[in-house]
Amino acid sequence: MGPEIYALMKRIKNTFDPNHILNPGVSIFGG
Question: What pTM was estimated for this model as a whole?
Fold first, then answer.
C-alpha cells in the first residue's frame, strides 16, 4: 500500500478503535 493509503487506514482505525481493542499488536494499520 502507498503511504497515503496507510495513513488513511490508520486514521480510520483510530477513529473506530481509539483504545486499540481490535487486533492488539497484530494490526495491518500499525496497531
Answer: 0.48
User: Tens of pLDDT along 1-18?
Assistant: 688 988 898 888 888 887
Q: Tell me, what's the pLDDT at 1?
A: 65
Residue 3 exposure: Cα atoms within 13 Å on the Cβ side:
0
Q: Under a CB-based contact definition with an 8 Å cutoff, are residues 21 and 29 in contact?
A: no
Residue 30, CA distances (Å) to 3, 5, 15 in order: 12, 13, 14
State the amino acid at position 24 in one-letter form. P
Q: What percent of the residues of the chain are helix, what percent strand, and what percent coil, each to the nearest 5?
A: 45, 0, 55
